[in-house]
Amino acid sequence: MNLEELKKKMDEEHYIYDDTLSTVLYVALQLGRPLLIEGAAGVGKTEESLQKRGVAYRAVKFPMAYSGRFVAENEGVNGVCKLLLGSDDTVLGAHVLGNPASEIITLAGMAIELKLTADEWKKIVFPHPTVGEIFKEAL
Predict the structure, then answer these.
(1) pLDDT on residue 64
(2) Can you tell me the distance from the alpha carbon of 87 to that of 34, in angstroms, rounded to the nearest whole number?
């Protein structure tokens, strides 16, 4: 098997979708007051990339404080969940600031991979109480 055949075989069997490859950043940021944010994660499109390409979208930002589990585990800390939805309400991107970001971003990656709309994603049952419920709450 030559190099070109190997590349073709790998592409067929192990294709990585750039839109669903998440990025995780582990940090501890002190943002004024006693507000501390630990971790950030994103998957899919960013607002900047959508604006550059002229893609119609809407951004939904939701405080992580709406998740009771987040509040219980991160006293005095805040965060935000941002979802980017296309004109047909398909999930295009998700970005999370807060301690559990790296643990929950995969949920958004799956929604993007499956090309779920907001209504379809809302139908999925999330265990309660979990921080991942923030996605459903934001929709």
Answers:
(1) 81
(2) 38
